[in-house]
Structures
1.
Amino acid sequence: MTNQKQHILIIGGGFAGVKTALELAKHPEHFAVTLVSDRPDFRYYPTLYHTATGGLRSQSSIALREILPEHVQLVEDFAEKIDREKRVVVTRSKHNLQYDKLILALGTVTNYFGIQGIQEFSFGVKSVEEVERFKQHLHQQLADDGKPDLNYVVIGAGPTGIELAGALPGYLRSIMENHGIKHKAIHIDLVEAAPRLLPRAPKSTSRAVRRQLSKLGIRLLLGQAVQGETADALTINGQPLKSHTVVWTAGMANNPLFTANNFAMNDRHKVTVDEHLLAEPNIYVLGDNAATPFSGMAQTALHDGKFVAENLVRLSEGKKEKTYSAKQPVSIIPAGPQWAAVDWGRFHFYGRLGWLLRELADLEGFRDLQPWWRAAEQWTKEMGHEESCPICAEFVA
Ligand SMILES: Cc1cc2nc3c(=O)[nH]c(=O)nc-3n(C[C@H](O)[C@H](O)[C@H](O)COP(=O)(O)OP(=O)(O)OC[C@H]3O[C@@H](n4cnc5c(N)ncnc54)[C@H](O)[C@@H]3O)c2cc1C
């Protein structure tokens, strides 16, 4: 047992970083915790599709200072370089941040696979800023043209693409109604390069979601590769598809900090970690960044944060560290009003029950990061709606 406090430096204010900070903050006698984030808020990604289709901004974004206790030092900066010998992280604003243990939980960045025009012309749904831009476009276009776009195209039939495509028909109809636009057909395409949607889910789930999306009138373009985008159209398998509204949800890449700092990675470009989630001596890598079996899910990131914090506490108390055991997350994917597909171990079910479970999972997600009363407040925001379009705002109020 040591008397001196260890300095724990956490880079990344997302699921894994915040969870680690919250757990370690319960032991101020052992740790001085600093969390570095390049943004002032925590992004609750699972509800971003809802924010993008009329939900509240504050539902998907919570100020980090509100979540973290006062004695966790919060630094808003961008980590760039790690000096392993000096145990220092150098930030973009040239601060040298010292650590005894370093925890890296930086999440992923969008990957456009070098497809021409996609980055320039498509919309994204990975931050509140991106979804605001998308929403403004939908409203502006309907207000200016008095009719919907020829095609609304969502690229990527993973969970994010499905959630968004499923919520779009209802949202577009409500905007049209508010703007007095009547009886215009809406065309929504969901494009996927793989031969089936949700390529990583069981086939029965892919089929159930496919039926549900078809019922909502969404056209599925499976096994179709996107080759490029211009201001007016997308090229898919050599054919043009006219659209001014393309959303890219198809690609994520690991955070570039790891390549820039020469970390060892597996063939999926995730950082190789040992049974304690250590990538190197004194450097832990968690969440989406780590090569663990269920990396890429918020539940895994929370699990990792809790695990590493517990081991750091054990070490500070002179106890033996535990060995990492991956926990299979429950996958709940909403697709349209009050419908979700659930894969829970051997159990798979679809429909309203799935949707109710998803609501509870979001409450649990907020509860993981905040006291219950604040989590409940955050959760009830799922019922709220918000529009910056002055016409639609009248209907929301
Ligand atoms: C649209 C969307 C919907 C999703 N829905 C679900 C879902 O329903 N269920 C589920 O389980 N998972 C979902 N996920 C996945 C889940 O959100 C991630 O697995 C989870 O966020 C990973 O947590 P993390 O802590 O590893 O990274 P993140 O939560 O991404 O946090 C990383 C943080 O590090 C910051 N950062 C990055 N680089 C730097 C730097 N150099 N310096 C300082 N800070 C930096 C980032 O700004 C960010 O705040 C979704 C993801 C997306 C994009």
2.
Amino acid sequence: MSFRILEQTLLFDANRIFVDGDRPLLVDAGTGFKVEDAIAELKDLLDGRDLERIVLTHRHFDHVGGAKRIADEFSSELLMAPADAEVLRQGDSEATLGTDFGGRIEPMEVTDLAEGELLSTGGHELRVIYSPGHSAGSICLYEDSSATLVSGDTVFVGGIGRYDMPSASRDDLEGSLRKLSALEVNALYPGHGPEAKSGGGKHIINGLRMLEGYL
Ligand SMILES: [Zn+2]
């Protein structure tokens, strides 16, 4: 069983993270600019299993641009927090930053994820943690047993998410980082850049210090 960051096709693409199990799931879909490559890679990894669910950490195009195409291919359900789901349902290319990336968002069906909801892959148990700040509907996924955090654009290895875009909030981001800092975090799988295999919690603490101006 594993968490695995799939190969990036474009530098600014978000990480797509494959969470293995009998019922594997994908976290984030990338821009979709090279979506056929992504689909081929997923078919290899799935090896005959279904991809029932794709979890989207937040509304931004570099994470959701490929979501509809991948979901259509695998008959997957798209899941995200309601505060960001609405702009995907509307196909809002402005609010998702699609226009900034030179792409478009088509309206799509999205199922709301609740705070604390558990997602099981048969190999991993992931709990939904709302972490607004980078966007209103940003989420993280946390596995208690392995102390693994999938953090979207809330916190990176060596940084934190921007909070100067539509629906972002510095105060909310600070609150979210405080909330995450209460967790034991060993492995950290962020929305961009490399993962930390251990000691992930220090990136949350450092992120808080950055926000408070100490770093
Ligand atoms: Zn983002």
